[in-house]
Amino acid sequence: AAPPRSQPPLSLVVVVDLRTLPADLLTPTRDAILGMVRGGLQPDMRLMLVVLDQGMEIRQAFTTDRTRFADAVLSLAPTSASEGAALADLVERVEVLCADLTIRNVDQQAVGIARAFVEDVRQGLSNTTDGLGALARYLAPLPGRKHVVFYSAGYPMQPQSIAASVVEALCYRGSPQGSGRSAMQAGPNEAHTAVRAGAAVDASGMLHALLDEANRSQVSIYTVDARGLVPDGVPGSQRAPTQVIRLGLGNPQQIQQRAVRDPQEILHSLAEGTGGVAALNTNDLARGLLAAARDGRGYYLVGYVPRGARKEGRFYPIALKVSRPGLQLRYRRGFEWLSEERRRDRAMSAALRFPKLFSDGGLTLDSWLEAGKLNVAALIPPRALAFRNEGGTFLSEIAVQGLLRDESGRVVGERYLFSKTVSLRLPAERHADLLTRDNLEIANQAPAPKKGRYLLSVVARHSGGRLATASLEFEVP
Predict the structure, then answer these.
(1) What share of the chain is helix, strand, coil (3-state, %, to 5)?
(2) What pTM value is reported for the model?
(3) Which of the 8 DSSP states describes residue 168?
(4) Average pLDDT over the chain, rounded to whole?
């Protein structure tokens, strides 16, 4: 028997994707989480609750207090965006439109509805993959294995294809459903071409970036399809949650099956790529939490150092095999090869997009307007910095970037309001003196924006990759 060894308690993060969960899905999700919290998890397990909506928010920081965590779960409520990317809405709107022979330019309008659906899915996928990637980076400094349990109804990874199929089936004159009912003259290939002419959705690129962040941070993702056991049909909308819309299409089974399976692809890929488990097609919504808790009690850690000179931006798969028969392996299945500069830029962009995740890093801001300029002082506690000692000289580097948004949330000006890197080379005396000070100030300046209210977000990246963010609101008179 192996000798006993001490190890840090498992850090378990529950992420609820409110964007995809209307009330009829959120209620059983809450119940499943509460059931496990109140009786199915180890007492010393550290729990954290995060919600995804238009952004990402920590509803409960890490705690072992089960009552506090349960109260945070009970406070979850559906949002106005919950039905944003619902396939049922796409089907209903296109079907009503194409059934009305009095409407002109019906093909253009149907394609417009389909493109709106595709864009909504793209935003959801981007928000989810970027948010989970930022969360993985936030969890990276924690010791031991970290498990994320992700509750979502999923997103189709090929939204253009499924949207084009719906338009073709419901509006094309040559289909059994559309024949004699629609003013649309475009053939099926033209319908697909028109829908696909919109903005492309790089779902694979988003997925690979997330898998790389999670695997480098020792984070495993356990996914749960919050729809539970879904029949092969288009799930009904919030207005009729038990309804299943059956399409009278030329090939109805294909569309109906895709309505169920396409959103599950992202959930399956996230779990498989990070060594987690995907709980799909089951009404046992606690299964993912149970698997994450069990896996934290024992696992093998195998190290791998890839060869250099890889192709920038390419995702490299990893295969792990054992000679013993009858074993099923779960492991992290690959990495993305990126330069340190590109990896740093990605990390800082993610922190600016989800600043609340990194707001506990000690960074504070001071701003003022003077002579047509916006001055921003980024204040960092020196003891939060990491220094490298080279022959008595202490080295550190701090990169600072700022992002300005107006009242509607739009980014003002260029990508960044300002960007600065400060390199410190301090002899031992100055380094010791710096550590006695309250703050290290990094001054930044940019042209003053026009009259209005603004939100300024700033991220600082210390040596060693640690991130800290701060935000403040101000008004230009």
Answers:
(1) 35, 25, 40
(2) 0.84
(3) H
(4) 84
State the DSSP H helix or E strand holding residue 16, giving kind and residue range, or none if neither.
strand 11-17
Number of H helices, E strands in the chain: 11, 18
List Cα–Cα distances, 153 to 25, 120, 386, 398, in angstroms.
Answer: 9, 14, 41, 40
Give how far the C-alpha of residue 77 lies from the chain's centroid of Cα atoms, to the nearest Å: 19
Q: How far apart are CA 151 and CA 32, in angstroms?
A: 11
Asked whether 289 and 149 are in contact (CB, 8 A), the reply is yes
Q: pLDDT tens-digit profile of 17-35?
A: 998 998 889 999 999 999 9
Retrieve residue 322's tokens. Answer: 């054992």
| Cβ atoms of 381 and 364 closer than 8 Å | no
For strand 146-152 and strand 11-17, is the pairing parallel, antiparallel, or unpaired?
Answer: parallel
Asked if 465 contacts 360 with a C-beta cutoff of 8 angstroms, the reply is no
Return the pLDDT at 186. Answer: 47
- Secondary element (H or E) of residue 287: helix 287-295
List pLDDT tens digits, range 273-328: 999 999 999 999 999 999 998 887 777 888 888 877 788 888 899 899 999 999 98
The answer on pLDDT for 412 being more than 60 is: yes
SS3 track for 211-234: HHHHHHCCEEEEEEECCCCCCCCE
Q: What is the pLDDT of residues 71-118, one digit of tens each?
A: 999 999 987 655 555 677 787 788 888 877 777 778 788 888 888 888
Q: Within a 10 A sphere around the Cβ of 16, how many other Cβ atoms?
A: 25
CA gap 148, 425 in Å, rounded: 39
Per the structure block, which two tokens stand in for 133? 């990637």
Count other C-beta atoms under 10 Å from residue 97's C-beta.
21
Distance CA 85, CA 267 (A): 16
